[in-house]
Amino acid sequence: MKGTTVEAGEVSKQSTPGSRGVNKVLSLMDFIMRIIAALGTLASSIAMGTTRQTLPFVTRFVRFKAVYKDLPTFTFFVIANSIVCGYLVISLCLSFFHIIKSAAVRSRIFLVIFDTVMMALLTAAASAAAAIVAVAHNGSTGANWFPICQQYRSFCERISGSLIGSFISIIVLVLIIIVTSVAISRR
Amino acid sequence: MKGTTVEAGEVSKQSTPGSRGVNKVLSLMDFIMRIIAALGTLASSIAMGTTRQTLPFVTRFVRFKAVYKDLPTFTFFVIANSIVCGYLVISLCLSFFHIIKSAAVRSRIFLVIFDTVMMALLTAAASAAAAIVAVAHNGSTGANWFPICQQYRSFCERISGSLIGSFISIIVLVLIIIVTSVAISRR
């Protein structure tokens, strides 16, 4: 009986051709989704990082200028998007390895762990930026914060747009984690 | 040869006693971590939801009062924490089922999917609230937003404190997803 179990363990490591095919498709989906997410974060960090607006009037002492560095939340947004983008590009190698060797499990768990952490990082950055953008648009009567978007209209439009790429990447990262979990269960 | 494979597949479904023991430990960890995360979100939503401060002076028209509802981000924070807390309590049933039946895979994938979504929701709420709290504390010279914490000191201290529970829950949720992935891979 003991002998059979050991033998069974050996054989079960070679998955059936059908499940291997499904795992290859899942790995391919994973690879493509990683590219999409990487492009999303890249677009976001470029859009936020390059946005600046100078108002067409100056006082004697002040030149009215808005860049992302004025608010630490936006700096965090650019850094977090760059980190996640870099990670996703590097993870493409491992994802490509999974297409070839679709039964790999340990490296998939490794990816799930990092994907989850990166998703948390990106979600934190994107929602913090979104909260600030919301205040910039609407202001806050309770806190007496003035909506700066009334002056810096084009600045506000661009930073609002730059959030889109991040939120698409977050959704794609959720899908990546789900697909990887399914692939792990199907080996 | 074909016969052997089928037989192997049958046997491999019954995991070895050793791996079953490890899976039981993982399931138990999962159960305990869910309780911790649920308590964290509960504490956060109660702390944020019950905070109010009225300043000791009034003008003829205005009574200076701060509640969480003044800022939509804080309302989102309370709602998201309540949703995640409710989900975690419900998921305890399934987590308990995994302690008894530690080889279950499909229900674990089900949990990973919802855990990931809930983690994203909680991270979004907590970091949006943190971004607003940061502005409330430090203000923003660029945007000309005044730090309201200088007046509403006790309100600010309590809402800052209420973030802690959420961030602990986020870390615990990341650990839960990792533990579940490992458990799925070990069946």
From TrEMBL, chains A, B:
Keywords: Cell membrane, Membrane, Transmembrane, Transmembrane helix
InterPro entries: CASP/CASPL, CASP_dom, CASPL
Positions of the Casparian strip membrane protein domain: 25-171
Pfam name, any one: CASP_dom
Keyword check for Cell division: no
GO cellular component, one term: plasma membrane
Subcellular location: Cell membrane
Transmembrane segments: 31-51, 71-97, 109-136, 163-184
Lineage: superkingdom: Eukaryota
Topology versus the membrane: Multi-pass membrane protein
Keyword Cell membrane included in the entry's annotation: yes
Quaternary data: Homodimer and heterodimers.
NCBIfam families tied to this protein: A_tha_TIGR01569
Family as reported in the entry's similarity comment: Belongs to the Casparian strip membrane proteins (CASP) family.
PANTHER family xrefs: CASP-LIKE PROTEIN, CASP-LIKE PROTEIN 1U1
Listed name of the protein: CASP-like protein
